[in-house]
Amino acid sequence: xxxxxxxxxxxxxxxxxxxxxxxxxxxxxxxxxxxxxxxxxxxxxxxxxxxxxxxxxxxxxxxxxxxxxxxxxxxxxxxxxxxxxxxxxxxxxxxxxxxxxxxxxxxxxxxxxxxxxxxxxxxxxxxx
Length: 128
Prior knowledge:
Elements: E1 4-10, H1 14-27, E2 33-39, H2 45-51, E3 58-66, H3 72-91, E4 95-102, H4 105-110, H5 115-126
Helix pairs in contact: 1-5, 2-3
């Protein structure tokens, strides 16, 4: 049976997000129907997932947060990851997490294919 997946992409770092999206789509199960919604930043990802929780079988969160000189990195990263985990547990639906949390842009570039891991994790739950 085909599963429906929503991929929510923060395109704040567009080149990183596009690479993550490409690797996610490459490794999603071929039976999967997916829709993509783009948002400006990672903070908006949990809200979009929550609004669509009943319409999809699973989700992939894609984005990148890079540490700057303020506490913003720590606050946003923890808030978003916690929210995504809570949504997954409360709804009993899988959310593949492909949100990079890096100390610099170079680290993000090295990890731009991590969408594969989110897709494979999602596949392992949806198609077991």
